[in-house]
Amino acid sequence: MINMKGQIYSINISKTKHTAKTPVKQAKATENFGLESDAHAGSGIRQISLLSSESISRQKECTKIKKNDLELKPGDFAENITTKGIDLTLLKIGDKLKAGEEVTLEISKIGKECHIGCKIFETFGSCVMPREGIFTKVLKGGTIKQGDILETL
User: Fold this and answer.
1) What torsion do the CA atoms of 31, 36, 105, 124 make, to the nearest 10 degrees?
2) 5: which of 98, 102, 104, 129 lies 20 to 30 Å off by Cα?
């Protein structure tokens, strides 16, 4: 595995699935569950989702986004953690990340299948999560904060 270091640019949660998430300053990650108060938390393999701010910036070139002058923000693609400065596309299933001082995540899925009627796809005309989003399981819980270091282990 390549050693990489970046930061947690934004932490995002939502009360319902299939919608954009709202940024929060910090959140508690619970072992084998995900982020407390987030609709996607649970015991499956997609406990916490990550997408890079660089991936979001590339989405701005999509026709519907440019044509309608839509602004893209952290959480718009329903990612829990928006990263900065770490190339998530180089990670593989089984790789581990340290988030902040306490939290350990394990890559469990790369990309996702879009569902019919996805509000994100309807709004933006495209979704980067199926291609560049990653999903993790929480191996060790704790508190993460906006601005925390995110690095490979």
Assistant:
1) 150
2) 129
Q: Is the distance from CB of 80 to CB of 23 less than 8 angstroms? A: no
Query: CA-CA distance, 31 to 115, in Å (whole number)?
Result: 27
- CA–CA distance, 122 with 119 (Å, rounded to integer): 5
With 0-12 / 13-18 / 19 or more C-beta atoms within 10 angstroms meaning exposed / middle / buried, residue 67 is exposed
The enclosing H or E element of 105 equals strand 103-110
Q: What type of residue sits at position 102?
A: E
What predicted TM-score, i.e. pTM, was given to this entire model?
0.89
One-letter amino acid at 149 equals I
Residue 13 near residue 80 (C-beta atoms within 8 A): yes
DSSP state for residue 131 in the 8-state scheme = H
pLDDT on residue 129: 76
Q: What's the whole-number mean pLDDT along residues 99-103?
A: 97
- C-beta neighbour count of 119 within 10 angstroms: 11
Rounded Cα–Cα distance for residues 38 and 119 (Å):
18
128, with CB counted inside 10 A (0-12, 13-18, 19+), is buried
Residue pLDDT, tens place only, 117-136: 556 666 666 667 778 899 99
